[in-house]
Write a structure and sequence with these properties.
One of its GO terms (molecular function) is ABC-type transporter activity. The chain contains 14 helices and no strands. It is mainly α and 266 residues long. Helix 2 packs antiparallel against helix 6, helix 9 packs antiparallel against helix 11 and helix 11 runs antiparallel to helix 13.
């Protein structure tokens, strides 16, 4: 577990610094300009499809403090940093060792397949926890220092949104580990991780923008990851969090089943 983190320490440090800098920028923008000023043109409010960018199921507009801060927790830059950490560490869990032919050396120690996958999954969860904690603490500090934002966004809501972010990461970690456990190329894992994140966001956006496609929103993790709602309500959205964590747990369980039954020869 520690070796997996150590090998990617520079990447993780860069991602953490990038996360802090980006969320600090979002908080500064929120404190300097009212959201209504940013998202108003000709007296009209933002389109309904912008709910996808505010991390809301429909009750929170991006032209509000919870919506604007929620946008910082669903922005493509935030998603890219999450996908980078998850894709890199998940690919290294099994598929990279199979591709390079080193997995047999790892197993000779001996290290059981269950221990290998469990510890590398734990390393990935720690990386996801660090990224979401960095974002949460940065937003919480900014909210606490801005009276106008603090009146609209309780600190409890910030930490609730952080927990939802971790749930979203777990939802991606499970399938990514399953692909790594079954795959033979790291590119397969990275591609699958990016597909889940990017396609999931696109599906949710289309479902919100085009009413005939509305039922498709249930297939996207972004329908359940709604930090804007958590920021506005000041609490964790337990049903949505349960679905996110449940999907991640099922993916991790599938990864153990696949790894136990597969041939590890390159």
């Amino acid at each position: 577990m520690w070796l997996a983190l150590y090998r990617r320490r520079r990447m993780l440090v860069a991602l953490l610094l990038g996360m802090v800098a980006f969320e600090a920028l979002i908080v500064v923008v929120a404190g300097a300009l009212a959201p209504q000023e940013l998202f108003s043109a000709g007296g009209k409010g933002p389109p309904g499809a912008y709910q996808a960018f505010s991390g809301s199921s429909g009750s929170v507009s991006i032209a509000s403090y919870p919506g604007l801060l929620g946008a910082g927790l669903t922005h493509p830059f935030w998603i890219a940093m999450q996908l980078t950490a998850i894709g890199s560490l998940a690919a290294a869990a099994v598929a990279a060792d199979v591709e390079s032919g080193t997995v047999e050396l790892v197993m000779v120690r001996p290290v059981s397949r269950a221990r290998l996958l469990a510890e590398r999954t734990a390393a990935l969860m720690l990386a996801a926890l660090a990224l979401n904690l960095a974002a949460t603490l940065t937003v919480a500090a900014g909210v606490a220092l801005s009276p106008d934002v603090h009146r609209a966004v309780p600190i409890g809501g910030v930490f609730a949104a952080g927990v939802m972010g971790l749930g979203f990461a777990l939802c991606l970690i499970g399938p990514a580990m399953a692909v790594s456990a079954a795959g033979r190329r790291r590119a397969q894992v990275i591609g699958a991780t990016i597909a889940i994140g990017a396609v999931g966001f696109a599906v949710n956006f289309i479902a919100l923008a085009w009413s005939p496609a509305a039922p498709l929103r249930f297939l996207s993790p972004f329908h359940y990851y709604t930090p804007g709602d958590a920021l506005a309500e000041g609490g964790i959205l337990w049903p949505q969090l349960g679905i996110l964590v449940g999907a991640g747990a099922l993916g991790t369980l599938l990864a153990h089943v696949l790894l136990r039954r597969r041939d590890l020869a390159p």
